[in-house]
Amino acid sequence: MDGADARTRIDQFLTDTGHRQNSVTVVPLAGDASDRQYFRVLLRDTASQVLAVHPGPIAFDTLPFVNVARLLGAMPVPVPRILAHSDALGIIALEDLGDVTLQTHVGTASAEEHAALYRQAVTFVNTIQRRGRELASPDYVPYGVAFDVEKLTWELRFFTTHFLEAYHGARLSDSVRTALEHEYASIADDLASDSPVLCHRDYHSRNLMLHEGSLRIIDFQDARMGPDTYDLASLLRDSYVDFDDQQVDTLISFFLAQRAAPDEDDRAPSTPSGSSRVSSRDEFRRRFDLMALQRNLKALGTFGFQTTSRGNTAYVQYIPRTLSYVRANLDRHERFGRLGELLAEHLEQLR
Q1: For 295, phi and psi rounded to 5 degrees?
Q2: Strand 82-86 vs strand 91-95: parallel, antiparallel, or unpaired?
Q3: Cβ-count burial of 154 within 10 angstroms (0-12 exposed, 13-18 middle, 19+ buried)?
Q4: Torsions phi, psi for 224 (to 5 deg)
């Protein structure tokens, strides 16, 4: 959107909400991959706010962001408070959580701090899954959309189109395309076979803010139903943070222990999320690795798309780490042998 148009609408919004005379300055913030723009409004006598400025008018009550915020707030898990909005101006005012993401903090945190924050993040995943079952209702958007075979397969094809072909310039023969489709179908069928749970859908270190000593969750508007390993794989095989296998094993064990424990009101332990059978730890790790592989391939597709289609090279730096996670999972499980061969023909990092 035009910068002057955004600022004109912001000025009108501040006037309408009684903050125009109280505002000190408006600072543009780094955006996400959406078409929204974000601005911090510094105010004299009260806390600053963040304005999410949409390309045009909105219908506040129908926005997925608003719907999911209500759902997560009912659990509760910590999300930014919605302070005000204007449908006509296309603006939502949010609680300002600052600039410190989990990604930026872990680089300076002690090992103890790092571990504690990730335990907190894993606890939120457990809460979202457990309370997500209890609060299930057609009134909430996520319960009507899921990571089914079609969606999971589409994301893998997105990787082929935007990373293998567009970014790496691979020329795939018909036989290779057919072989990749076979591997993709196997992955998608396996992942979609378990009973779905509520997923944030993009649960990683850039979407967890450190505010007043605790984590807050953002960018949740695409929440949907999916595998119980989805958010955990997003967090622990995060393209933006290094994780070794010992750290992953420790946090998976923490997650499974939490999931097996009685709820706070001392009811009997709930059935493990996202599965109709009680999975052993090894089986959970197998499903986790499968989900992580799909998730990382999809992330590479996004990085390729942002680079080649949008001219946004900011994500190129995260490609090597993501490929290293892909290679680790391809090497870890025999079932990925053929997929590894197919990809290694075009990606030297996987050889």
Answers
A1: -65, -45
A2: antiparallel
A3: middle
A4: -160, 175
Q: What is the pLDDT of residues 43-69, one digit of tens each?
A: 998 899 999 999 999 999 999 999 999
Distance separating alpha carbons of residues 349 and 328, to the nearest angstrom: 11
10 Å Cβ neighbour count for 17?
17
State phi, psi for 277 to the nearest 5 degrees. -125, 155
Phi/psi of residue 21, nearest 5 degrees: -80, -15
Quick one: tokens of 16? 């309408």
pLDDT digits (tens, 9 = 90+) for 165-223: 999 999 999 999 999 999 999 999 999 998 899 999 999 999 999 999 999 999 999 99
How far is the C-alpha of 63 from the C-alpha of 66, rounded, in Å?
A: 5
Q: How far apart are CA 38 and CA 26, in angstroms?
A: 10
Q: CA nearest 53: which of 27, 21, 18?
A: 27
Tokens describing residue 134: 């209890």
Residues 290 and 37: their CA atoms lie apart, in Å, by 35
Look up residue 174 and give its two tokens.
């018909």
Q: Looking at the whole model, is its pTM more than 0.85?
A: yes
